[in-house]
Amino acid sequence: MPFASILSAEYAAQLLERGKPSEINQKPIGTGPFIFRKYDQDSIIYFDGHPAYWKPDDVRLSKLTFSITPDAAVRVQKLIRNECHVSAAVRPSDIASLRKAPHLRILSKQGFNMGFLAYNAIHKPLDDVRVRRALDMAIDKRSIINAVYQGHAQAAVAPLPPLQWGHDKSLKDTPRDLKQARRLLAQAGYPNGFTISLWAMPIQRPHMPNGRLMAEMIQMDWKKIGVQAKILSPEWGEYLARARRGEHDAIMLSWVSNSSDPDEWLGTLQYSNWRNKAFDNLLQKSQQTIDTAKRTQLYLKMQKIFKQEQPFTPIVYATSFQAIHKNVTGFKFNPLGPTIFSGVGLSE
Asked: Start and end of every Solute-binding protein family domain (predicted)?
């Protein structure tokens, strides 16, 4: 996992003694093929190739520079103008223009990710499964895929993506049916609908390229069944902190696996605050079992319970893209998210 990098205990002890423990993040000493040299805050990180690294074939670059560029449009222009060699987080809407640049290659893979909408099950009326099902069946996933992902995604059904072992490919979405959704709301005691908050992700990710647009489309879908959604989009740090405190009603999130284990998907339902005894018992058994075949059977049962209870709506499994210069060699597409430069070089 990227956040579990090996660090120097000796260096950490020295920083504690100096009263500067935060420098383990700002001025790190690691164990990888590149040596940290300098960080210009919110601008550039400079690395040198490690001349004495134990795997010399992993060090093919003498210099490695990360230019921090939050604006996706600026990243695209840097690629096109030959100002960088590799760019992460390529938006689906930029693929066509990048493919026209003769010096670039666009790599793509089926994504090991999921964009989803979680319902806070401790907030009324979302504590009622009929309400959650009504909201779920009102969402037009195909329109979202076309508008937000430019068609570069697959409609999500299960809470595990297809690349994950344990994925239940037998699950089916309830057909989109606005009349049935309204009937479910009426049965739950909301014939005239209700008003809830809908939190839209304020940052752009490959598997959630435009949270605001997706939220607006869901808002329009829900309006058709009488549900009024107020879109909120706090700053990202506040977004997560307030969500962990359970302040949201419905919240948009995206997830990419760090470890390729099903527990990463089914063991992280905290944003829905949903509890189900049968599901929790199966989860506990799966976490205490090492046999993959037995664990798979437990996860299949859990996914069926999930689909019945609908604590969140899986929306998409997005295609992953990476744009690189044609003279970049040895680059490997990492489905787990981080961009790895071990073994990467440049041809003449």
From this structure: 4-274
**Which tokens in the block code for residue 298?**
């437990």
Helix axes 292-309, 277-287, angle to 10 degrees: 160
Q: Does 256 or 102 have the greater pLDDT score?
A: 102
Give the closest residue to 181 by CA, choosing from 200, 194, 169, 171. 194
Residue 333 has pLDDT above 90, yes or no: no
Among 64, 65, 66, 88, residue whose Cα is nearest residue 76: 88
Condensed to tens digits (0 to 9), the pLDDT of residues 199-240 reads: 999 998 878 999 999 999 999 999 999 999 999 999 999 999
- Percentage of the residues of the chain whose pLDDT score is greater than 70: 98
| Domains parsed from the chain with CATH numbers | 32-108+321-346 (3.40.190.10), 113-318 (3.10.105.10)
Coil, strand or helix: which one is 124? coil
**Inter-residue contact 93 to 209 (CB < 8 Å):** yes
Burial of 245 (0-12, 13-18, 19+ CB in 10 A): exposed
Q: Are strands 44-49 and 34-40 parallel, antiparallel or unpaired?
A: antiparallel
How many CB atoms lie under 10 A from the CB of residue 38?
Answer: 11
Q: What is the 3-state secondary structure (H, E, C) of 196-259?
A: EEEECCCCCECCECCHHHHHHHHHHHHHCCCEEEEEECCCHHHHHHHHHCCCCCEEEEEEECCC
- Tens of pLDDT, residues 168-202: 999 999 999 999 999 999 999 999 999 999 999 99
Beta strands in the chain, from DSSP E residues, in sequence order: 34-40, 44-49, 63-67, 86-87, 104-109, 113-119, 153-155, 194-199, 227-232, 250-256, 312-318, 320-325, 328-329, 345-346
